[in-house]
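User: Mind token order:
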Amino acid sequence: MTHQTLLRRDRALALAADGLPVLPLSADKRPFGNCPDCVGNACGGRPNMKTPGPCVCPRPCHGWAAATTDPAVLSSSPWAGAWRRAGAVAYHPGAADLTVVDLDDADAVTWARATLPPTRVVATTRGEHWIYRGAMQSANGVRPGVDIKSLMSYARWLGPGTRTMAALPPVVRALVEQKPPALRSAVPSAVTVPAPVGGGRCPHRSPAYLERGVAMAEQRITNATSAVHNTVYATFLAVLSVHGRCGCLTEAHIGRLYAAAQAKGESPRHCADAWANALTVLGM
């Protein structure tokens, strides 16, 4: 590895040791997959690799979901090539219970200084990152030049910043709540998607196979001890990637997954958001 490669990887390992989930980022700000099956977006994520695709790995392993604190993963052979090509280190703010208010220009910075409570500030190429303690839904374009990066998103690591980090204030949460919810769904709905290409028999019609899959998904959510929101979304995505295109899932199955998530503290709205987002990512 080159000196710069080692510096980036060592920086990532140091951040991970402090509990910040990290991942390599290319020079054009695209994340890399962290398993061989998903290298080069082979599993069908969105072209810019910013959104996890329907891979069959234990969890979505690229986009924001590639971020990890596991030093074995960060130093593994699948990521060796990624570190050689990486232009920066990125992190998943929401998994570390953080929210980044990304201010993309001078006007946005001026607005933040007049509107938001002071907190940790990191200088960027064109503006600033204001970092608060607490996680929330991410959203782009909440106002001109302002994005919110937290859950299911990633941000570049640009240094520790200055000033004391403050708790996430209601005024920042309100920025997303006031934004038109493009992906929200008020209630769970049945999955109605086209039959498999070619019209063949659905390979998942076995009740035992489906029951085992749903039960494993419920258990995965129930066993989550941290990053519950991320676990719920990843589990919904995994279930839909296997059973979503063949009509196997019923309202009862979806209700069981929602119930498991709500037992871990997720609200009905968060469950609906996660389900709707998973459907959208998978093109359903």
Q: What stands out?
A: The two ends are 41 Å apart (CA to CA).
